[in-house]
Design a protein that fits this description.
By secondary structure, this protein is of the alpha/beta class. The chain has helices spanning 27-53, 55-58, 81-92, 108-117, 134-143, 158-163, 165-185, 219-235, 273-281, 309-322; strands at residues 17-19, 22-24, 72-76, 96-101, 124-128, 148-151, 190-196, 241-247, 249-251, 306-308, 328-333.
Length: 340
């Protein structure tokens, strides 16, 4: 049986003695208590003085100041597949990066890899926040001095968007509006926006160029097109430098194997080909299931334009360097070649 009664661990002499129902304290021990209290108070005062004098507390966070020669980029969705690769590339090129992510889709493992690679102060900070929360977003922009935003954060599964369209309009369209409003309010000068070839729908004529008309056919593509429209309309009366990049099918990973895509099991059914490849390669799923075998192609499977994620992030860094105030650049980012 377990004994929950108190055991007598101290010898009697060290404890307060009881005389006729009253607690009697040995006077010699009273002096000891007093000494201990004085010592504790002195140590506490010393600690407070040391903490106040500590340079790390007095000096502002490097993320909250503009430093000449340092470009501070806010990477939204930086815990995700493309955002984490973009962060790696930016850090390698000596940018200062703040990641904001609610970890709804990305993973903290990628952030830890990046933090371990770039542990120096002022290189990378991670903020766990939801871009749908106006108060959090305002706080992030007011407490940090960003020079540019790479806005990757989104839910990005075509199939899921048809089942839960409001989630897509909220997460993509409405959150982009909030990001742009805060960029305008806090004077952030450059925006690189993650858009998609899904904004084109199913055009008759191939290849798809930037001049191809946009007629999206699912809520994902429509939500992205609306976000693009918000950005373009805003830009007409703004000095912000904007680049809208419409990606095709992103594939691959960091050649050194440090980052990748780790799709959540519940999203597998919505099938993104990149995630399915990672799952199959890591043995998480028994193999790669090819969906769609009746396309008018030699083997009946779909032909897509695959772009390697490292080439895609290269395009982002170039876009950041070339972005011009008061101008909107719109670029398709693919290879221009279809592959099985
Ligand atoms: N992967 C592709 O093939 C592809 C193609 C075209 C466009 N895109 C676009 O690229 C961007 C990145 O896609 P990805 O493949 O890296 O997706 P991903 O799901 O791996 O990453 C998205 C990240 O955004 C975060 N996020 C989502 N909603 C958020 C919110 N409300 N607040 C904060 N963080 C939030 C997620 O947690 C995740 O880390 C998306 O905008 C997507 O639409 C991707």
């Amino acid at each position: 049986m377990l004994n929950f009664g108190r055991s007598r661990s101290q010898p009697r002499a060290a404890r307060a003695m009881s005389l006729g129902g009253m607690d009697y304290v040995d006077p010699k021990r009273k002096g000891n208590y007093f000494g201990k209290i004085v010592l504790a108070a002195a140590l506490t005062t010393l600690c407070i003085i040391m903490i106040r004098r500590s340079p790390s507390l007095n000096s502002p966070s490097p993320f909250s100041i503009r430093e000449p020669g340092v470009t501070h980029v806010l990477v939204t969705g930086g815990a995700g597949y493309i955002g984490s690769h973009a962060t790696l590339r930016l850090l390698k090129e000596n940018y200062r990066v703040t990641i904001v992510d609610n970890l709804s889709r990305g993973n903290l493992g990628a952030v830890r890899v990046l933090q371990n690679l770039f542990p120096e102060p002022g290189r990378l900070q991670f903020i766990y926040a939801d871009l749908g929360d106006p108060k959090s977003v305002d706080k992030i922009f007011s407490e940090n001095k960003f020079d540019a935003v790479m806005h990757f954060a989104a839910v990005a599964y075509v199939g899921e968007s048809t089942m839960d369209p409001l989630k897509y309009y909220h997460n993509i369209t409405s959150n982009t509006l909030l990001v742009v409003e805060n960029m305008a309010k806090y004077g952030v000068k450059t925006l690189i926006y993650s858009s998609t070839c899904a904004t084109y729908g199913e055009p008759e004529k191939m290849p798809i160029t930037e001049e191809t008309e946009q007629h999206p056919i699912n809520p994902y593509g429509k939500a992205k097109k609306m976000a693009e429209d918000i950005i373009i309309d805003f830009s007409k009366n703004s000095k912000m430098a904007v680049m809208i990049l419409r990606y095709f099918n992103v594939i691959g990973s960091d050649p050194e194997g440090r980052l990748g895509e780790a799709p959540r099991p519940e999203l597998r059914e919505h099938g993104r080909i990149s995630g399915a490849c990672f799952d199959a390669a890591r043995g998480i799923t028994p193999g790669l299931k090819v969906r769609g075998t009746d396309y008018k192609t030699p083997d009946g499977t779909c032909i897509r334009d695959y772009i390697d994620v490292t080439d895609l992030v290269d395009a982002h860094v170039k876009a950041l360097q070339k972005a011009t105030p008061a101008k909107v650049g719109i670029y398709n980012v693919g290879t221009g070649k279809g592959r099985f």
